[in-house]
Amino acid sequence: TDGLPGAEYGVPAPEAVCGRTEGEIRIPDDPTVSPRHACFRVQGAALRVEDLGSANGTFVRIRRPHRLAVGEEIRVGRQLLRLEPLPRPPPAVHGVRSWGAPDPGCRFRLSQLLEGGGQGEVVPLLEGENAIGREAGRISFPSDRYVSARHARIDVRGDAVTLVDLGSSNGTFVRISAPTEVAPGDQLLLGAQLLRVEA
Length: 199
Fold this sequence. Notes:
- This protein is mainly beta.
- The protein has no helices and 18 strands.
- It has strands at residues 15-19, 25-26, 38-43, 46-51, 58-61, 66-68, 73-76, 79-85, 108-113, 119-125, 128-133, 139-140, 152-157, 160-165, 172-175, 180-182, 187-190, 193-196.
- An 8-stranded antiparallel β-sheet has the order 10-9-8-7-15-5-17-18, with no helix packed on it.
């Protein structure tokens, strides 16, 4: 988090496990890293990373717009957010409408996940652009100094939900759910650790 280079780890062929207490790459001082967190595999000229069922997941920084799926988690600064479907209101019964604010017609929402598994703010996503930032946007985190003033954007176009980084300082990350190829320059988050892939 201070921007200074840390330890360097080699990835021996064919694979290296990364974890807090197990594997070839150990990060012993971070309690958010699982004992066996992720595995790096060398396959020809390619390097792939796979999460090993870790408690906090393995995240990759996006370099281009990323199509989000329902249930997918993203990290922005210190925030962990999840895309969820927005339940539709029940139909009127005997012509009686349910009480509440007018339904804006949103189909998705972004939920803030808290330490320990709780849920924080829930923001319905409007059709079109939904900005995320520290100072500007529909979704703002003014006390999180790791979130840029204008950090990212979630675009909703019908059934398509796309995450776009807006040139943020600390990046926008998505949780991987399957083995994912990474390239030199890519950045990963394992717990609170930021790792960069180098050739």
